[in-house]
Amino acid sequence: MPRMPSARAFLTSTLLATLATAGSAAADPAAPAAPTSPLRFPSLAPDGAVSEVAAEVAIGIYDGADVNLYSTHLSAQFVTPDRIGGYARVSAMSLDDAQALSDLELGGLYRADFTDATLALRAGVVLPTGPDQDSGFDEAFLPLIHLASRRPSDLAASAVDSTVVRLAASPAVQRGVLFARADVGLDVFIDSPGDDNPDPLYHIDLAAGFKQGAAGATIELSSLGSLGSDASDEGTFDAITLGGQYDLGEATVGGGLSIPFDTFDQGGLDLSGKTLFANVAAKL
Predict the structure, then answer these.
(1) Ramachandran sector of residue 262 (left: φ over 0; alpha: ψ -120 to 50; beta: rest)
(2) What share of the chain is helix, strand, coil (3-state, %, to 5)?
(3) How far is CA 225 from the centre of its chain?
(4) Using CA atoms, how far apart are residues 134 and 140, in angstroms rounded to an integer?
(5) Can you name the residues that pair with 226 across neighbouring β-strands?
(6) Domain-wise residue ranges, the chain
(7) Which positions ≥6 away from 50 have C-beta within 8 Å?
(8) How far apart are CA 239 and CA 178, in angstroms?
(9) Taking a C-beta distance cutoff of 8 angstroms, is the pair 243, 220 a contact?
(10) 8-state DSSP, 96
(11) What is the C-alpha radius of gyration for the chain, rounded to an integer number of angstroms?
(12) How far is the C-alpha of 71 from the C-alpha of 168, rounded, in Å?
């Protein structure tokens, strides 16, 4: 029995409980005031909340493997007072004697702010800066292992010799100390090796959390699948992430645990295990 429906149902119920509790808090005069800085969801894509640079270091520990995958994820976003901006993202990883970079993602974003909600729109492109067809198998495989287990929604950045256009929308809501966010997007291959481009990919992220004072906690579910005709046979890449963070004012530090499950059947990819990570984000 696939675990995806139960995991998504769990996080959906968490989101609903968050909003219901938030509604009660909003009606309570004694409820704590809303945090002045937004809650960060470390597995989700840029949302244009603040201009920042961020770095994450992680270690992937897989069942039955005698070596660990070490990785670094770098990202930056810049937003003008008009809520228009841009972002950049890339990862580096190492497994035993193999090292590799993921493809580089660059893009623009726009964020609309409402009374207690926001909507961020993104358009970006993944450039083929990672391993190419002449790279060894181990080097070319590293971005896939890393992203599938830590950031399934960003799997397009592991494509070899491919250019991918990424479009996404990210609504978010805040009620006092409680936060909820979704991120839904489409990845379209426009230039890949061979005669035909791969089928488009879709991703769905759901996240919820709270921030009390400077401390916060998050839960995130990331899921990616294919829009191809045989997509139902391939399944999806999914990961659930638990995290904690502390706001230092001009910077936020945090860490957490990602656990992948229900991976694609094709290729015999086994990602049983977990990824531990720590991160820091500094405001610009």
Answers:
(1) left
(2) 20, 50, 30
(3) 14
(4) 9
(5) 201
(6) 4-283
(7) 37, 38, 77, 79, 283, 284
(8) 22
(9) yes
(10) T
(11) 19
(12) 25
Joined tokens for residue 185: 């997007």
Say whether domain 4-283 belongs to CATH 2.40.160.40: yes
For tokens 């270690």, name the residue.
59
Provide the phi-psi class of 64: left if phi over 0, else alpha when psi is between -120 and 50, else beta. Answer: left
Residue 14 has pLDDT above 80, yes or no: no
The pTM of the full predicted model, rounded to 2 decimals, is: 0.85
Taking the C-alpha atoms of residue 147 and residue 156, their distance in angstroms, rounded to an integer, is 9
Closest of 66, 233, 269, 40 to residue 149, by C-alpha: 269
Helix (H, G, I), strand (E, B) or coil at 219: strand
Tokens of 165: 């256009």
Q: State how beta strands 273-283 and 215-226 pair.
A: unpaired
- pLDDT tens, 203-256? 999 999 999 999 999 999 999 999 976 655 567 889 999 999 999 999 999 999
Q: Position 178: which residue type?
A: L
**Cβ–Cβ < 8 Å for 89, 105:** yes
CA atoms within 13 A on the CB side of 68: 11
Residue with the two structure tokens 């391939």: 234
Identity of the amino acid at 88: A
42-89 pLDDT, tens per residue? 999 999 999 999 999 999 998 877 889 999 999 999 999 999 999 999
